[in-house]
Amino acid sequence: MRTLTTVSIALVAFTACLSAQNTIVSPIGATSTEGSGSNAFPFTSSVIRRYQQIHSDLGSGAKLIKQLSFRANGGSTNYTGTRAMDIELALCDAGDYASISNNFSANYIGSPTTVISRTIVNLGPQGQASIPSPFQGMDLSFSPYVHSGTNSLLWEMKVYGNVLSGTFGSPDADASTTTSGSTSVSGTGCVATGRTSAMTITATSADMGGYVGIGLGVSNAPSNQLYWISLGTSNPALSVPGWCGTFYTNNITLFPAGLTNASGSALYYENFSVHLQNTFGGPTFTLQALALDPGLTNPVQVAMSNGASMTLPLPNTTKVVQVSRMFDSSGTTTATSGLRFTTSTVGYGLVTRFTY
User: Fold this and answer.
1) Does residue 5 belong to any structural domain of this protein?
2) How many Å separate Cα 58 from the centre of its chain?
3) Which residues are CB-neighbours of 119 under 8 A, at least 6 positions away?
4) Looking at the structure, do residues 236 and 252 belong to the same domain, yes or no?
5) Across the 356 residues of the chain, what is the mean pLDDT of every consecutive 10-residue run?
6) Rg, Å, the chain Cα set
7) pTM value > 0.85
8) What is the distance between the alpha carbons of residues 247 and 245, in angstroms, rounded to a whole number?
9) d(Cα 64, Cα 57) in Å, to the nearest integer?
């Protein structure tokens, strides 16, 4: 009898262990604190897309994850509406959040596991918003997924459709401390073939919790042509015979930045954008864009932009969010690469609760 009792107690304890539910919220700092913003992607946007999010703050130790939950952005609205979302959800190990790639598949360690095959999930109502709002009406449940805890965790959603009925709030999101750099422009670029205005360079930078994002693009450039960025430390304002414009950088290095579109533009977040650990100490660089232009009558058939002076921000680690995201806006679920923004990629993500 004593042996049976002992076995019974062990079975009860084992069953209780299996049925126990633990939760962890990421970003960890938003567990009981409202995030710094909100974002429509991927839950309150009608655009068909892929969406990835990497979490590096879930801690070590194996977890049998069986649910992801999200919450409405804080406020006072009572959200009584619903959304019927046609989705597929996968989980996978990933590298550190700060090393997120524009290439979706490059973010996987191993192969992703589909935890929700394509189906319609009904979300909402989210109920009465507060600050922060409860995790309500936005639960995605599935058979347990084994996360070893050795690496970061990635979840990826493919959204095939999203139908709204009534009022539904955008999810809460959180970000690292954001410090923007400064940019000034000088001079005038060439008027490229097919354009009526001078070619211009666009430059932006921001520190996100110790990682600096740098984005460089062009507008009013030649159509469908390669362009380069000339990087220097001073502005010589030098005119050279045979060229259509003025050199606004002393050109320490020249690197390829992408391809312009049919309108002669190259948006930085679609072409050249990087995040680097911010150990630069706030330097100032001079920049200029150069693009092939076979239609020019000048001996050197290269269009030149105006000049830009960009001062990178100092690192600020007051608040570090160890979450990053990658998404596209292609209107498909088969895009191979996403968009990289300086202030909403590294150190930025939806507040997510993991139940295990």
Assistant:
1) no
2) 19
3) 86, 87, 88
4) yes
5) 39 43 97 98 98 98 98 98 98 98 98 98 98 98 98 98 98 98 98 98 98 98 98 98 98 96 98 96 97 97 98 98 98 98 98 99
6) 25
7) yes
8) 7
9) 16
